[in-house]
């Protein structure tokens, strides 16, 4: 009985030791073991990790990409416009040992560097750059945050400016500016159209002046168009040149002329 009790006690102690020394590290985590406060060499990978109870302490580090929103920062641009800009930072841990040993709280440290860098980039940029050249600003902001983060074993994957909030007065001014620009373009297009039309009319008038018959034909077309309209009345004296021109037309073409013009023609009588 004594032996059985000893065995049971030994198994109990072994089970307790196993329960207190076994640790499970997930696939996206890495483990650091501190023995009496001193970091042991080697990083524990995912799976089952055994430590010595009491003397060892396991610290798990998340290696996933973290999405950190940067609160809106207010600043004055290089062209003296007050704006509020917010952003988002994507980062992950590259070196678990440096992330735990070199900085007290790497999440808080990255957040503070991101805020100060965002305020700095606002002061160095014009309003037009913040509104239309965000890709270049994102790259500059990423470099500014990544420089100190490398010393902490942190990799900045991407930084993006989310929104640029402008004062209401600036919004109204930009709206008026855009409206004036659209009106200017409309006037320029209309003026170009009138210029092209005048050039074409001038060319057509020159050709008609060189060819009197073309001018007479144009007058006839106008008469026909006006006569074809319903409830239209056309009163105008017929020029002698027009009557002489029409007299030379074949009989079939003269029958298609408007009745007033056809009646004004002299009748041909037999000899």
Automatic annotation (TrEMBL):
<dbReference type="InterPro" id="IPR043202">
    <property type="entry name" value="Band-7_stomatin-like"/>
</dbReference>
<dbReference type="Pfam" id="PF01145">
    <property type="entry name" value="Band_7"/>
</dbReference>
<protein>
    <submittedName>
        <fullName>Peptidase</fullName>
    </submittedName>
</protein>
<dbReference type="GO" id="GO:0005886">
    <property type="term" value="C:plasma membrane"/>
</dbReference>
<dbReference type="GO" id="GO:0098552">
    <property type="term" value="C:side of membrane"/>
</dbReference>
<dbReference type="InterPro" id="IPR001107">
    <property type="entry name" value="Band_7"/>
</dbReference>
<keyword id="KW-0812">Transmembrane</keyword>
<dbReference type="InterPro" id="IPR036013">
    <property type="entry name" value="Band_7/SPFH_dom_sf"/>
</dbReference>
<keyword id="KW-1133">Transmembrane helix</keyword>
<feature type="domain" description="Band 7">
    <location>
        <begin position="20"/>
        <end position="178"/>
    </location>
</feature>
<dbReference type="InterPro" id="IPR001972">
    <property type="entry name" value="Stomatin_HflK_fam"/>
</dbReference>
<comment type="similarity">
    <text>Belongs to the band 7/mec-2 family.</text>
</comment>
<keyword id="KW-0472">Membrane</keyword>
<feature type="transmembrane region" description="Helical">
    <location>
        <begin position="6"/>
        <end position="25"/>
    </location>
</feature>
